[in-house]
Task: structure prediction
Amino acid sequence: NLNNGKIWLSSNLSGDDEVYVLQNTAQIYNEVSAIGEKTNQGKVAFSTLDGFFEIVKSNKDDFPDFIVEYLDKDIRLSEFDDLSFQNLKKIKLKNWDLIPKYSVDSEQDIEPLDEGFKYDIGIGLGEIKDNTFFEIAFIPIYHRDNFRMAYDLSYNLSSNNDIKINHFGSIFDIIDKIIYFDYFSSNGKLFVHIGDISKITFGYGQLVRNYRNTYGYPHLQKTGMTTSIEIKENFLDLEFFISDVEDFSNGGSLVGIKSNIFLSENFPLDIEVGIVSDINQYANYASQTGQEVVDSRSLYGFNLNLNYQISKTYYNAFYLFFDMVSLFYPDNRVFYREYREVERQGAFSFSFPGITYTYGKNVKISGALHYNSSLYEPGFFNSTYDLFRVQNIEFNTSVNEHDTLYNYLVNKYPSLISNDQDKSILVTKDLHSIINNSQNTFESFGVSFDIETRIQKIGGLELYFQHLMENVPDDVYSVTEVIAKTYQTIDFRLFINEGVILKMNRAEIYLSQYNEHSGLNLSSNTLSNNTSMGLSFDFQISNRINLIFDLKDTFYDINYSGLILDTSIEKVRSLNCDFMMAF
Result:
C-alpha cells in the first residue's frame, strides 16, 4: 500500500523480495508470517517465502546504476522506458556454473537477453603443446522463451597432425560441438543443460570437488549433461550429471546423482545424499585412441552431508555441518604396513565439526576438521580427474624396482589392462598413488578452510585449502624410521567483473593442486598431473568486437603414448587468442 510514494522492488525466482522505499511511505506485509509494517523513505524491507520479515536502513550502493540515476536526476516515471533497465524484461540462464545448488541463483545467473537468432564469427591463433593452429570460428546462437542453444562450427588449420584438434569423424564429434543446449521451466522447478559442465561439487567437496569436463579442450571435446528438479518447494531437490555422453558408447561415463532434503523451518537441517560412479574408467581411452577396449573397470563413491542452521538474520547466518564419504574400489586394494599385507575394499572420510558463516550473498567462510582412513584421497573426482583417469605407464623391467612393481600390479589387480610385450599397464587413477609412492598407508588427520567472496561491481575470490598428515603410531613395527606423509590441496580462483579495468568484460586467474604429497609443489620442473593453472580475459574492442585470450597449463600424457615410470609428467600448455564479432 503506497501513500503517494515510490518503491523499487527486487525479487528472485525463489520468491524473496527486497522493497526499497524511494519516496514517502509504504505499507509492506508478509502474508506467510502475517507481519506488516509502515516503512519510511530510506528504508528497505526484506520479505521471504519462509516468513522472514525485517526492515533496515537502505544503502544507495545496493541499487542498480539505473535506479541511482533515477534518484540523482529525479527522472519522471513516464521516462523509465528509456532507461537501461528495460532490458530486464527478458531473462536467461548463464552457462552451467551452479553446482552444488543447480537451481537458479537470482544474483548470479539471470541476465538481460535478446531472444532470437544471432551468431558470432571470428579468427584466432592457438597453440597446444608446441602444435600451432589457426582458428576460423563460427558460432550460431538461438534463444527463444525457455530454450537456448549455441553451437561451435569452428575449424582449425594445424601445423601438424600429432595432436587431434578438429573433431568431425563421428556422430559423437558432432554432438561434442554443442556449447550449450538449455531448457528451464517457467516455474523454475526444472533445468536441463547439455554441453560443457563445470564446478560440480558434492557436499563439502571431499568426494567431488570442482569437477569439470573442459580442461582438455580443444584436444579433448566432451558434451555432458546436468539436470536439476525441484520436486517439492523448500523440501526436496534432485540433481544429476553425466560427464560425457560419448563414453556410453564405450561402456559408461562418469555420472553422479544427489538429493537434497530440507526438513523444516522448525528444525532447519539440510540432508544431502550423493552417489558418483565412473562406470568404465577406460571409456575415454577407447574414444581418444580408437582402440577397442573389451574390459571395463568401475568404481563408485557415496557422500552424506548434514548441514544444520544454527542461527540466521537477514545478513548473517551460521551453520554446523557433518560430511561423510566412502569410495569403493574395483579390486581390493592391497598394501603393506608393518611387514603385513593389508587389504581394503574401499576407503572413507569424515569431516566434523564443520562450521560455515555467510554474510548475505557476498561472503561464505567454511572450516572443518578431517579424518581419513588409509588410502583415501580427498576430492577424488576433481577438475583434473579426466586428465589422468587412465595413464599408460611403461616399465623398464631391467630395473629391479620396475620389474617388481609391474608384476605386483598385474597379479594383484587383474582388472587392469596390461601389455606384457611392451611391459606397459593402463593404470587408473585409483591406483596412481601406488605408481608415485604417495599412498597413505596410515589414517590421516587434518584441517581445511573454504572462502568465497563477492565484491559488488568488482569481482570475487574463491580459495580452498586443506592440510592432512598421516598418524603414524609411536610403537609402529619397522626396522627403519617411518616418516608420516603430509598432503595439501589448494583450489584458488580470482575473477574481475565487467568494467573494472577499462573495457574488460571479465578476467580470471586460477590455480588448483589436489592432495599433493609432501605439501604444495609449485616448482615448474616437478609439477604433477593433479595440477592446473591458467588465466583468461575478454576485452571489448568495440560494441561488436571482442578480444578473447585463454591460457592454461595442465599435466598429462596427451596421446596416451606412454609414460616411463619415475619420469616427470609432461606439461600441456594450451593458448588461444581470438577476435570475435557478434551479429
Q: What stands out?
A: The chain has a mean pLDDT of 84.
